[in-house]
Amino acid sequence: MSDQSMNVLDHLDELRKRIIIILGAFIVFFIASFIFVKDIYDWFVKDLDMPLTVLGPMDIIYVYFLLSGVIALALTVPVIIFQIWLFVKPALTRREQVVTLTYIPASLFLFVAGLSFGYFVVLPLVLNFLFSLGGDMFQMMFTTDKYFQFVLRMTIPFSILFEMPLVVMFLTSLGIVTPKGMIKNRKYAFFFIVVISVLISPPDFISDVLVIIPLIFLYEVSIVLSTIVFRRKRKRERELENQS
């Protein structure tokens, strides 16, 4: 067997090892979440003024598995990020290892910040708007599975959007994104942010502003971070040119 084939097999074996660790962590967190699923459920519905409804016995199991799975996945995110870093670590220089290692706590912080923003800011705004829209015309009754699916739709997108600064830094380090390009396309980015914010928030000015401002702030922070990474990248390139 050639050295190239052995190298590929080694990478596949390492990848399999990382996947097994991630799946193992997810299973452990899932079991732990399932044990405390009633407490988790009570925490999520403590601010609701109405009891949630199930339409059949199997809906109870579905909700239990949904809650346990989501909590387990959220707890597994740090493991996923760290295992990815361990997988790519051998291909990085010592400096690159240190730099990329700093991305891990930052990505976790932004992930949690996005979830928190969606759950504590956007979700109450949308729910209050829907309650006021229904008024006395309808008798409000939410099924448990529909409610938690709604909660996920109001939170998960923000956990992804809040990763924008790190994604921009990574793409800048690869030379795909430049701060000049981000500044040049700022008006298109703002338009996209406004459209997304209007679509996911209630149709009133206050709610739109509360969603738009943090996303615009994230874009501006991304420009600053992209500028820092770009300058450091250019500086290293010049140093390499001078050494050669």
Can you walk through the features of this model?
The chain has 244 residues and is mainly α. It has one domain. Helix content is 83%, strand content 0%. It is built from nine helices and no strands. It has helices spanning 3-35, 37-45, 57-88, 94-134, 144-161, 164-173, 179-184, 186-200, 205-243. Helix 1 packs antiparallel against helix 3, helix 3 runs antiparallel to helix 4 and helix 4 (94-134) crosses helix 5 (144-161). The longest helix is centred in the middle third of the chain and has 41 residues, at 94-134. It is flat, with a radius of gyration of 23 Å. The mean pLDDT is 85.
- Tell me about the largest β-sheet: none
SSE arrangement, N to C: HHHHHHHHH
Distance between the termini: 37 Å
* Number of helical regions: 9
Kindly state the mean pLDDT as a whole number? 85
Structural class: mainly alpha
Work out the helicity level: over 70%
Low-confidence stretches: none
Question: Nearest-angstrom radius of gyration?
Answer: 23 Å
Beta-strand content estimate:
under 5%
Overall domain count: 1
Family: Belongs to the TatC family.
Membrane topology: Multi-pass membrane protein
Keywords: Cell membrane, Membrane, Protein transport, Translocation, Transmembrane, Transmembrane helix, Transport
Subunit structure: Forms a complex with TatA.
